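Project outcomes to date are best conveyed with an example. Our students and postdoctoral researchers have been running inverse folding experiments weekly, and each run begins with a structure described purely in tokens. The record below, which covers 370 residues, was selected by the lab manager from last quarter's runs and is presented without edits.
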């Protein structure tokens, strides 16, 4: 009986010894070396902050059109019916190229026949009066009147003939070399004398017609430089100067009209273009547009110094190609992160994949933007 009561005591002692031994083993166990957490970093490319002249520009959009001084309107020489169109808008024509074929209207044909009949009558009447005059049966004033009637009839027929009267089909040719800009009639249409049939723009007479926001129009003036860039092919660029700036809002577009010559334009009439009008040139700092990061606090760039990115708030100015003007706590010697800039945080370590200048800490002489 006494022996069976000692077993629980012995078991408790054994368990206590094991627990104490396990605790002692854990206390004297050498702590395992904790794994070091790697410092976060980002792979970036660098570009220098550049100092130099920056153009302040106004961007606008428009189309290529013909200038008024280079545009010729071909009109109907008399009342005509359009028999055939020998050209279409956009085609290049030379001097004398056939443009349109017209014929007499019924009334126009009648007018020519009446003029021709009047001429024949005046010729017969003059011959009759002349015979009477030779026989002393007609006075001088009768002869003079007959001669004047003949002259008037001849002039009327000449005018009809010059206008193309009496022809079954008259071909009207281009008065200048250029591009057909508009055809305003259709085959079979009747046009009154003097009515426009089509227009031709002389080669070299192209201009860019822009529409400018009224808030920016006050910055523009005749003579300012402008880059005319094709909206479809940015490689087509024409350097020009503003030739006209309106001061009234177009009621249809709600924009201010402006224009600049487009000499030698490898562009079609009606082609869409973009205008970059230089209104002023100032000294400033520029960085690649891709280096500027925007968030809820505004715009900033990351200047890389000592292998770390430092956030610098900036104010963004006008763009100049792929560069943008900025102002803030920057120097022309600074290097800014471009590719990978959106991954960065202030003080974050960076790994440089490539730079446009030698090293993140390379120095470029220039004025301070501070």
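After processing, the design step wrote out the following sequence:
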């Amino acid at each position: 009986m006494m022996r069976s009561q000692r077993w629980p005591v012995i078991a408790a002692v054994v368990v206590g010894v094991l627990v104490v031994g396990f605790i002692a083993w854990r206390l004297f166990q050498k702590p395992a070396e904790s794994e070091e957490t790697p410092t976060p970093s980002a792979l970036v490319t660098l570009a220098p902050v550049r100092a130099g002249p920056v153009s302040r520009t106004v961007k606008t959009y428009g189309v290529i059109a013909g200038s008024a001084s280079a545009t010729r309107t071909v009109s109907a020489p008399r009342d005509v019916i359009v028999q055939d169109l020998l050209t279409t808008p956009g085609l290049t024509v030379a001097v004398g190229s056939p443009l349109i074929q017209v014929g007499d209207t019924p009334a126009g044909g009648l007018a020519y026949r009446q003029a021709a009949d009047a001429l024949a009558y005046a010729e017969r009447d003059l011959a009759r009066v002349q015979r009477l005059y030779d026989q002393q049966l007609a006075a001088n004033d009768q002869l003079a009147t007959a001669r004047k009637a003949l002259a008037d009839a001849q002039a009327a027929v000449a005018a009809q003939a010059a206008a193309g009267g009496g022809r079954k089909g008259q071909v009207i040719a281009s008065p200048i070399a250029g591009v057909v800009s508009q055809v305003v009639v259709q085959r079979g249409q009747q046009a009154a004398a003097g009515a426009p049939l089509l227009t031709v723009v002389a080669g070299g007479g192209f201009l860019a017609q822009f529409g400018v926001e009224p808030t920016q129009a006050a910055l523009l003036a005749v003579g300012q430089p402008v880059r005319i860039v094709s909206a479809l092919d940015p490689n087509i660029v024409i350097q020009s100067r503003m030739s006209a700036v309106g001061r009234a809002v177009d009621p249809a577009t709600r924009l201010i009209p402006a224009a600049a010559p487009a000499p030698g334009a490898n562009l079609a009439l009606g082609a869409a273009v973009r205008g970059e009008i230089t209104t002023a040139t100032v000294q400033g700092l520029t960085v690649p547009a891709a280096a500027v990061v925007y968030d809820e606090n505004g715009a900033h760039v990351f200047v890389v110094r000592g292998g770390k990115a430092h956030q610098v708030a900036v104010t963004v100015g006008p763009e100049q190609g792929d560069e943008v003007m900025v102002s803030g706590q920057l120097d022309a010697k600074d290097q800014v992160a471009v590719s990978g800039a959106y991954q960065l945080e202030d003080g974050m370590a960076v790994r440089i994949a490539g730079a446009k200048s030698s090293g993140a800490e390379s120095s470029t002489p220039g004025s301070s933007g501070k």
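The longest helix spans residues 106-134. The chain has three domains: 43-54+282-355, 58-68+204-280, 69-202. The training component of this project remains on track.
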